[in-house]
Predict the 3D structure of the following.
Amino acid sequence: MTTLPPPLARWIAERGWQLHPHQSALLARKDEAALLLIAPTGGGKTLAGFLPTLAELGTVPGPGLHTLYISPLKALAADIARNLRAPVEGAGLAIRIEDRTGDTSYQKRRRQRADPPHILLTTPESLALLLSYEDAPRVFAGLSRVIVDEIHALAESKRGDQLMLALSRLSALAPGLRRVGLSATVEDPGAIARFLARHPEPCTIVEADPGPDPDIAMLATRDAPPWAGGGGRYAIADVLDEVRRHRTTLIFHNTRAQAEIFFHHLWLANDEALPIGIHHGSLAREAREKVEEAMVRGDLRAVVCTGSLDLGIDWGDVDLVIQVGAPKNVKRLVQRIGRANHRYNAPSKARLVPANRFEVVECQAALEAVRDRDLDGEPRGPGPLDVLCQHLLICACSAPFCADTLFDEVKSAGPYRDLTRADFDACLEFAATGGYALRAYDRWRRLVCRDGRWHLRDPRSAQTIRMNIGTIIDTETLKVRLKNRRGGTPLGEVEESFAATLTPGDTFLIGGEVVRYESLNELTVEVSREAGREPRVAVFSGTKFATSTRLTARILALFQQSDWPTLPDHTSAWLALQRRVSRLPVADRLLVECFPHDGREHACVYGFAGRNAQQTLGLLITKAMEDAGLSPLGFVASDYATLIWGLEPLADAAPLLDRAALRAGLDGWLSGNAVMKRAFRDTAQIAGLIERQHPGRRRTGRQATFSSDILYDTLRKYDPDHLMLRITRDQALRGLVDFGRIEAMLDRIGRRIDLVRLDRVTPLAAPLILEVGKVPILGTGRERLAERAAAELIAAAGLK
Amino acid sequence: MNGHSFTFHGAELVALASGGLFWPAERLYCVADLHLGKSERIARGGGSLLPPYETRDTLARLDADLAGCAPKTVLCLGDSFDDLAAAEGLDDNAALWLTRMMAGRRWIWIAGNHDPAPVSLGGGHHGEYRHRGLSFRHIATPEESGEISGHYHPKIRLHMRGASLSGACFLLDAARLILPSFGTFTGGLRASSPELDGLMGPDALALVLGRRVLAVPMRGAGLAKPG
């Protein structure tokens, strides 16, 4: 057993603290090449990760970087730096701890490279940038340990894939480097271990005591939730009661827009003026930091928030988590619940607020899953090639490389362990020449091979490559500022597509305020305050997670009960009504309901395949309907159904759901669709085909830039086998298009399709009528509508 | 011919869905902002290696228009090449293709801000060009009337009752016509931008490209709002 330096052991003892078993375990196993700690929130995970470092560095450490700590959040890196300094300074250890993120000053970053601290806390993107410099071998030569915090979150995204490639680089620069991963509770620790460890080396998994079962239930409300709609407005008074009864409450929402609306109404009902804040990813950094600081000081009784508070800063005072809207995913719910009572061995308390009757069923299924400790998760595919393309460019920035050596190195990264040499070479070719069938860039290639090593042709391009490091792709957003003489207070951001729908005088919510749109100035939306008007709502982006397969299966199972004693009366009555007027969906059949509504024919397809797959199903089915002359006008998808409306009724659903026809639609027509173009945009930016940032280029007239859609169409037309199209397709099929879940659904239902004709909206279809995200079909029907509207406008304007 | 016909200073013109402009009575075809050689120019500057197919694509669309209109005169309203080096560096196939299209007709290159000087491809070179009361130049001049120009790459997005409309467009008012950009790798400037808003009169129309050309008031959304 490794012992702590005596001053540190004394400092801990003086506080009457004792190491948790898993903290001692990490200390005892500190020499292992790879360690994964699985512990619930509040289990002292981070300290567990650092104890071996403190033990090794001792009282008077020698110079040089010893431990690198990586966190997905900048704020977390800064917070850990503060927390770690307490014991280090308290025990009088001469250990230098510094953080380094995109917010760190240029001078400090330069100094850190010349004279690195003992412990450096950073993010995956900042680490990739460090590795792109010529001096990376010197900076990292003596590195002993790397700690990856919140690895369960990183492992779900390309940020994690990029980080693992960076670790493969670090292991080459610092042989003997040991890796430690810190993870929340997950369904498959082995998968995270394989992700983290240097392939094919083993990884030891240390599991901490999961702690007591949480105190979790649905919130009892005065009013029943509505049949349809989101946001949970009906429960405002009940939520306020809970806020009053607790010290600090986190109120989670699934989308930023819902958080805004809820906060607005919570504030209107908040007669006692309880201090309540709002926090989400579209708010200006200043606004978010203000809320975070107030939270740390304990000044707030509640924060209305989104996934932006899923990770991060330890707030010991949170004693209640409220989840508004269905949780979508049991694992994420469990991690969220852990935000309450950040103390080990104290049960967390959480209440769920379903937004409508259907969500009551979803919440009930989730509660049962939490009690059964039945976590869910969809396995991720192999490391994506766009991230590898970027990695090759980053490596070339640091030093010329040999392809064979780098290939072996890349294959040592967990997510890339099965990478083929052919794929590696395709990525290298893309990075060097663009990889086009037409060899156009012989003179202007990016990488050239001399004496068996790959160099940048133009060393100046290193700057551009560095400026475009990272795998987080922002949607195009515009800043929102209050209009005044001094430039205006930044409030946050809205999506460009939303801003385009605004005309002066329109009102929307941002940061809990109603603002009035005044003008668009360059790339800034200028607004003024406008109290007391009913706002239009800003359509923020924010990832839409699909409800997991496991949770969906539980919901379908719940439907099959003969009655529902565990559900509130209003919801069991609602389900009974659905059973009486139509049917309840079952797992091995497909229910399709048809009914007229609001002057249009509707068809609701209950595929229970998750939002992305239901969206794809909507695209494919409406295309088939258009071809069949049924004139569909649009559709909307939720996690469990797709609702389609159009001019003609649907008489037979089977041909629309034929597997071969769907597959053909996917291969042909869908590849020209906006969903694929969006996937392409992300891939093209990550791989370096499109530069997001360019040194010395100001964003002047917008006619200088053109859309990635044009590149996509051009490649499809002239170079259909290009690497970028292959990557786009692979990723879309797994993510946005999610065709796998459509196929799983088809397997489940076989040919058992029930088409039910009704004279009105059914209870189960009602929530979809109000669902946001309606997709218009740009077919013949809509073309006629556009022509008519254009003619009316011309006439109304008196122009001819 | 798929396009929108209108009268402009006594001339019967057709705005084509391709983005080209045709004057049947004069058999004159006009096109703006081809930006040939753009991907090569970007690569040369150490930027991205974009798909090197846009010159081929632009020429193919131009060729289709010329085959359909069979004009006697072709006017390129400037920024035909992404820069002068791109004009000189045009690959043999593209240069040959252009020469073939130029054969047997009058071809006029108007100078643009990207390609201010003459190129070695033949044809006439002008700063601006006048014909039967209409003037053709690259960038619109505010005081001019009866003027046809390019440069701005206008595009529009309108939300109308029950439908929305977006795309590249011609802008038309009593005094001027601004053409959309024809080049494949070109973006657009919103019709609502201060430059275009200031240039166009209150009754301006946008002729929006799509499968058909649709005429709408350029500031349509504002006009359509009740009250």
Remarks:
- The first helix of chain B runs from residue 38 to 44.
- The two ends of chain B are 39 Å apart (CA to CA).
- The mean pLDDT of chain B is 90.
- Residues 94 and 124 of chain B are 19 Å apart (CA to CA).
